[in-house]
Amino acid sequence: MTAPTSGTRPDDARRHNRSALLRRLHVGGPCTRATLATELGLNRSTIKAVVDGLAEAGVVTEAVPSQRSGAGRPSLMVLPQPQSAVVLAVDVRVDQVAMAMVGIGGQILGRHSWNLHRTTRLPGEVITHVVESAQLLRDELAVVVSGVGVSVPGVVRRADGFVHEAPNLGWRDVALGQRLGAVLQYPTLVGNDAELGALAEHVRGAAREASDLVYLSADVGLGGGVIVGGRPLRGTRGYVGELGHILVRPGGRACFCGAQGCWETEVGEPALCRALGLPEDTPRGALVAELRALAAAPGEIDSTLGEFTEWLGAGLVTVVNMLAPELVVLGDLLTALPPRVVDRARGIVHERSLVSRAVGGTRITVSPLGRDARLVGAAELAFEQVLETI
Amino acid sequence: MTAPTSGTRPDDARRHNRSALLRRLHVGGPCTRATLATELGLNRSTIKAVVDGLAEAGVVTEAVPSQRSGAGRPSLMVLPQPQSAVVLAVDVRVDQVAMAMVGIGGQILGRHSWNLHRTTRLPGEVITHVVESAQLLRDELAVVVSGVGVSVPGVVRRADGFVHEAPNLGWRDVALGQRLGAVLQYPTLVGNDAELGALAEHVRGAAREASDLVYLSADVGLGGGVIVGGRPLRGTRGYVGELGHILVRPGGRACFCGAQGCWETEVGEPALCRALGLPEDTPRGALVAELRALAAAPGEIDSTLGEFTEWLGAGLVTVVNMLAPELVVLGDLLTALPPRVVDRARGIVHERSLVSRAVGGTRITVSPLGRDARLVGAAELAFEQVLETI
């Protein structure tokens, strides 16, 4: 009656320790060998062996810390070398594609972006432009790319990066992961933009300490990403939900999706333009300027954005009651809302959500990453895989 | 540079194999040693050792299968012995408490229930009655109880079974798990009723093959339990969401929770009574009889339940769009809805939910467990722990 389960082979353990240590450095930044040993629960000799191996491969360097604390021999600082593991992050938005080369540790080494119009938004056009720009960026920065992460505003099958429907782009059934991967020749992962926004907030933004969070971002559409117990929430066959299409207003505006009064139709970018008396296709810069002006005139906020705030709050109550998150991060365009609007939405959640009361008050906060959240999330998506294979 | 992770000790492996095998028998029913070996990925000698140990302890028996397939020595059937591991399941509902002793394998060995009224609904009263009834049932059946699972219609902290708020019972801040456990002297776990309904459907009901499902049950309140990737969905600090309090109808009826137009106020039991022109406190039996009569007169269904069906469908669209489940199981009172109503709700989801379209059509089905779902779920909650410790 002996153990039939296959044992842990030394090779597996070594690889596991190596990627755990890299992940710690990538997310938490440089630290001493002693801290690594404590945080990872490994003994000093194991840490030394792993760090020595990584230093030999040029992935980390070691340095004497500038400030010594206490007596005794100082523990060496271990620093990840950004150029040693680089990923390409691509954020395909409705009006723009943003790209960045991101080094281990999260440093953005170089960027490129271009605007999209109806004619340049076709999948083939976008793929060609991404590939060309990737080569230019790579050559310019003289980096070796280890992986690619792509954010798309649509319903994505994670296994192979197949984009089922990206309505605001006008995309349907695009084998984006496969097509990009085939040309770029790097491992390419594709994720839903809201899910990647949530990942970014979790790893590098407002939700670093939270393991249950909702990230909500408004663009032409409205998307929400959910992390539960530290992991992205996904439904059947890996599809993520579409928070923008919870129904908040029966008999409301018709949504492209076939429903009426979706959260997206009531608090997306066009809805915000309408509330402000602007044309629905007002450029983002002008819209943000208008919101800034309004924030400086608090007397007008309630009459202008009162109803918008109600729909924002109503959707938040539904989300909080369903998912019991610790906090909700408002991202992207929603970061430009006047503080009074965010306060009022917060008030609505606290007044009307019994789950918020049960958990001691769900926090509603504004993203510090702003427009970069999805790009950062796309990089983290790529790093999840890359850190396993270094 | 050797493996620092603690190895798998033979004792752990033996215990792990034992509980995996018990879980297989508990959920899937009797099967041959050969099937156990295949399904659990263990070799025959390990299976033999585990089964022999369990047989010696009286937890299983072995028998020659009645039908022999093919030539050769027949593989012995392994049968769990229901009396050998018994849990007490308690379903605290708004109008009733139901209890059952459930044996390993899921067989209900004995039951007891009593109605609740305003005066007998107090936590102290309920606890006293549960304890007395447990002793009577135990003596009557001459069983040894290994654990207790309790279902409560409220917000429950799983760690210690603390009931934060069970509004329809009028309970607030009741240390139910602690109080029951202290008197019964058995390990006692408490769960939210909808979460346990979902667990029951997953283990023994309509969702055995699904790992992403939503269970929706209507009683005085409306509750929903969610299983994602085979595990219950829980938010911060283990709290589960409250699907009954997603907002479906702005400016709708005031809900006790502080919001208006919650899903619960529009499709709970009182709402169904109102739609049928019955008093809100119509007894369950009379309500179900009325629904049966209506099912036989399809011409009247749309005019009577048309609006009810719209709200049911609207909430389902929100839930499906947010969680992308493979199927939604309608439980409890909702199992009594005329099939035409369920068909129409299904139609609403298929027409209006883009996520349903993306996943190839979310299934909407009616629970085969009916009113027993939470009781079955409470038993499974207890067994989760008990099977680990046999």
Please explain how this structure is put together:
The structure is a homodimer of 390-residue chains. With 390 residues, chain A is α/β, with parallel strands linked by helices. Chain A folds into three domains: 62 residues, Winged helix-like DNA-binding domain superfamily/Winged helix DNA-binding domain (Arc Repressor Mutant, subunit A, Orthogonal Bundle); 129 residues, 2-Layer Sandwich (Nucleotidyltransferase, domain 5); 163 residues, Nucleotidyltransferase, domain 5 (2-Layer Sandwich), CATH 3.30.420.40. Chain A contains 13 helices and 16 strands. Chain A has a five-stranded mixed beta sheet with strand order 6-5-4-7-11, with helices on both faces. The first copy, chain A, has a five-stranded mixed beta sheet with strand order 14-13-12-15-16, with helices on both faces. The first copy, chain A, has a three-stranded antiparallel beta sheet with strand order 1-3-2. In chain A, strand 5 and strand 6 form a beta hairpin. In chain A, helix 6 packs across helix 13. The longest helix of chain A has 26 residues. The radius of gyration of chain A is 23 Å and the shape is globular. The N terminus of chain A is likely disordered. Chains A and B meet through helix 1, helix 3, helix 10 and helix 12 of A and helix 1, helix 3, helix 10 and helix 12 of B.
